[in-house]
């Protein structure tokens, strides 16, 4: 792609580094920004800079947050006895968009994958186990992608958690091998609503 301006080329190269954004899409975005006033572009860039500089991770559930504790954890209307365990923040947002869950979350930051060198100590598992012990948790919903890594992580947690805590899994509305974040909201909502005990989920595989 040829550019008549080095400034535009640099901007396109930066934007095209974002996931799912090719050079043509990046060029359309850059040209769109050119049509905006300097003030609008400054507000745009300031919002991105502030987000990167000031964003925090919730010290309780590891969700992104503007404060030390995220708005989900501090919301008094959320059920404190149920934790939905997810791989990453994208999955948390996907489940929140279903509006079918009123408990709290725990973001693992990945899945156990020995082939990729990811073990239990690389995830926020110890923090999850501490929450189960300290927060009177009655149920853990394992909302992990139905992959080999997701099932391995679920199995590990199931072995570590006391039997007094109910552990359930999403019903298999999401196809095996699929990524949770790409499932539609209706499918995710039904999978949450029709969740099953983890032992039953293992037998069905």
Q: Could you describe the 3D structure shown?
A:
With 205 residues, this protein is α/β, with parallel strands linked by helices. The protein folds into 2 domains: 6-54, Helicase, Ruva Protein, domain 3 (Orthogonal Bundle); 79-203, Dna Topoisomerase Vi A Subunit, Chain: A, domain 2. Helices cover 43% and strands 11% of the residues. It has helices spanning 6-15, 23-34, 38-54, 71-74, 89-96, 125-134, 148-160, 185-193, 198-203; strands spanning 56-57, 64-65, 82-86, 104-107, 139-142, 166-169, 196-197. The strands form 2 sheets. Strands 4-3-5-6-7 form a 5-stranded mixed sheet. A two-stranded antiparallel ribbon has the order 1-2. Helix 1 packs across helix 2 (23-34). The longest helix has 17 residues, at 38-54. The chain is elongated. The N and C termini lie far apart (49 Å).
Brief overview:
By secondary structure, the chain is α/β, with parallel strands linked by helices. It is 43% helix and 11% strand.
Descriptors:
alpha/beta; 7 strands; Helicase, Ruva Protein, domain 3; 5-stranded mixed beta sheet; single chain; two-stranded antiparallel sheet; about 200 residues; Dna Topoisomerase Vi A Subunit, Chain: A, domain 2; 2 domains; 9 helices
- The low-confidence runs, each spanning 5 or more residues with pLDDT under 50, are none
Mean pLDDT: 88
Shape: elongated
Strand order of the largest sheet: 4-3-5-6-7
Number of helices: 9
CATH topology of the largest domain: Dna Topoisomerase Vi A Subunit, Chain: A, domain 2
Largest sheet: 5 strands, mixed
| Structural domains: how many | 2
Strand elements, count: 7
Class from helix and strand fractions: alpha/beta
Order of helices and strands: HHHEEHEHEHEHEHEH
Strand content: 5-15%
CATH uppermost class of the largest domain = Alpha Beta
What is the annotated CATH architecture of the largest domain? 3-Layer(aba) Sandwich
Question: How much helix, percentage-wise, in residues?
Answer: 40-55%
Computed over alpha carbons, the radius of gyration is 20 Å
């Amino acid at each position: 792609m040829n550019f008549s301006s080095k400034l535009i080329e640099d901007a396109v190269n930066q934007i095209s580094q974002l996931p799912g954004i090719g050079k043509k899409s990046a060029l359309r975005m850059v040209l769109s920004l050119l049509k905006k006033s300097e003030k609008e572009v400054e507000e745009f860039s300031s919002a991105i800079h502030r987000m990167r500089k000031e964003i925090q991770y919730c010290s309780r559930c590891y969700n992104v947050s503007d404060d030390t504790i995220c708005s989900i954890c501090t919301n008094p209307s959320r059920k404190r006895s149920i934790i939905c365990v997810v791989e990453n923040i994208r999955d948390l947002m996907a489940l929140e968009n279903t509006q079918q869950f009123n408990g709290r979350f725990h973001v693992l930051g990945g899945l156990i994958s020995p082939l990729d060198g990811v073990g239990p100590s690389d995830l926020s598992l110890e923090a999850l186990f501490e929450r189960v012990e300290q927060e009177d948790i009655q149920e853990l919903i394992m909302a992990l992608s139905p992959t080999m890594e997701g099932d391995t992580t679920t199995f590990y947690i199931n072995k570590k958690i006391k039997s007094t805590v109910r552990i359930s899994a999403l019903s298999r509305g999401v196809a095996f091998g699929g990524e949770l974040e790409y499932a539609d909201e209706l499918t995710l909502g039904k999978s949450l609503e029709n969740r099953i005990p983890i032992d039953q989920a293992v037998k069905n595989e």
